[in-house]
From TrEMBL:
Note: Reaction proceeds by a ping-pong mechanism involving intermediate methylation of a conserved cysteine residue.
Keywords attached to this entry: 4Fe-4S, Cytoplasm, Disulfide bond, Iron, Iron-sulfur, Metal-binding, Methyltransferase, rRNA processing, S-adenosyl-L-methionine, Transferase, tRNA processing
Organism expressing this protein natively: Candidatus Abyssobacteria bacterium SURF_17
GO cellular component: cytoplasm
Pfam families: Radical_SAM (PF04055), RlmN_N (PF21016)
Highest taxon, organism lineage: Bacteria
Gene: rlmN
Stated name of the protein: Probable dual-specificity RNA methyltransferase RlmN
Cofactor(s) it depends on: [4Fe-4S] cluster
Binding site for S-adenosyl-L-methionine: G153, E154, S185, S208, L209, H210, N284
Length: 339
């Protein structure tokens, strides 16, 4: 719930306004896991709250820490037995949480583990926000400065919950993150992009493109058969013009599929027309996959071709690959309910 929605509930019950201020602070500034944790709220009021409402409390089932770069992957249990994964990437005194928005994913990109078992269900607002609360208040994690909605699932296919969770991340009484610190990533889900264009949500947008023509993208990202590249790019352009939202293009490099110099030139053209920067992500291995990452030399040549065209192009090195926490590695096998 947004802080003002909690205020309204308290008002409707005839409770003093400072009580809802206390509850909101407990939720977002102190990470309370239950109403009982809210020790400066009278016991009778805590009981009344617990009778009518609940605090989403995802169970930490497993934490893996990368020996290479201290990336942490949380396996979190939902109340119905489903599971999701959340990744926290430390960077000096800052850290970024990569949050999931769905259990599994409907779009089944063959290079990505998240869609292997299809979509089980959307996450609720509370389940999305609690992943960030788990990261923010974990004793071993420093200052949570950035949130990317880029974990399992397509955020814009769960639009209402994603948008509301994002408002809580931005809200000054919520996580109070700046608008440049929250990013929504999409595989090009057109209905969601259209909703975002009509919304006033001041977030950064990342487009997982991964191919520059429809034939290749149809193979790598089946969502493209329904929402082809030209329509997705047009929707992004419309969004950028109306909102001046900066765009980042995510481009996973897969040997022999999308890593030629011709593709680098086409990608440069797309970036120039959208004034977008590019993150190049060498493909991260998942089990029983036919794909491979290009050689270092090929990756650098691809980047150089983009830079030659004046495009800002960065290589995003795998973070947490040794614990299967890198892009495309969040596992569908961890999300199914155990028998
Ligand atoms: S890459 Fe994104 S859209 Fe494709 S299966 Fe993975 S989570 Fe879904």
């Amino acid at each position: 719930m947004l802080p003002e929605e909690i205020d309204a509930l308290f008002r409707a019950r005839g409770l003093a306004s400072y009580r809802s201020v206390q509850v909101v602070e407990w939720l977002f500034q102190h990470g309370a896991r239950s109403f009982d944790d809210m020790t400066n709220v009278p016991k009778s009021l805590r009981s009344e709250c617990a009778e009518h409402y609940s605090v989403t409390d995802l169970k930490i089932l497993k934490v893996q820490v990368s020996q290479a770069d201290r990336t942490r992957k949380f396996l979190l249990g939902l109340s119905d037995g489903a599971m999701v994964e959340t990744v926290v990437l430390p960077e000096g005194k800052r850290s970024t949480a990569c949050i999931s928005t769905q259990v599994g994913c409907a779009f089944g990109c063959p290079f990505c583990a998240s869609g292997k078992d299809g979509l089980a269900r959307n996450l609720s607002v509370g389940e999305i926000v609690d992943q960030a609360r788990r990261a923010r208040f974990h004793p071993d994690i420093g200052n949570l400065t950035n949130i990317v909605l880029m974990g399992m699932g397509e955020p814009l296919a769960n639009y209402e919950a994603t948008a509301k969770a994002t408002r809580i991340f931005l809200h000054e009484r919520g996580f109070a993150l700046g608008k440049r610190r929250v990013t929504i990533s999409t595989a090009g889900y057109l209905p969601g992009l259209e909703k975002l264009a009509e919304d006033d949500l001041p977030v950064r947008l990342a487009l997982s493109l991964h191919a520059t023509d429809n034939a290749t993208r149809n193979r790598l990202m089946p969502i493209n058969k329904k929402y082809p590249i030209e329509r997705v790019l047009e929707a992004c352009n419309h969004l950028l013009l109306s909102r001046r939202t900066p765009l980042t293009i995510e481009y996973m490099l897969i040997e022999g599929h999308n890593d030629s110099l011709g593709e680098a030139r086409r990608l440069a053209g797309i970036c120039q027309s959208l004034r977008a920067k590019v993150n190049l992500i060498p493909w991260n291995p998942i089990s029983s996959s036919r794909f491979r990452s290009p050689s270092e030399e090929r990756i650098l040549r691809f980047q150089a071709e983009l830079r030659k065209a004046g495009v800002l192009a960065f290589i995003r090195r795998s973070r947490g690959a040794d614990i299967d926490a890198a892009c495309g590695q969040l596992r569908a096998s961890s999300t199914t309910k155990k028998a």
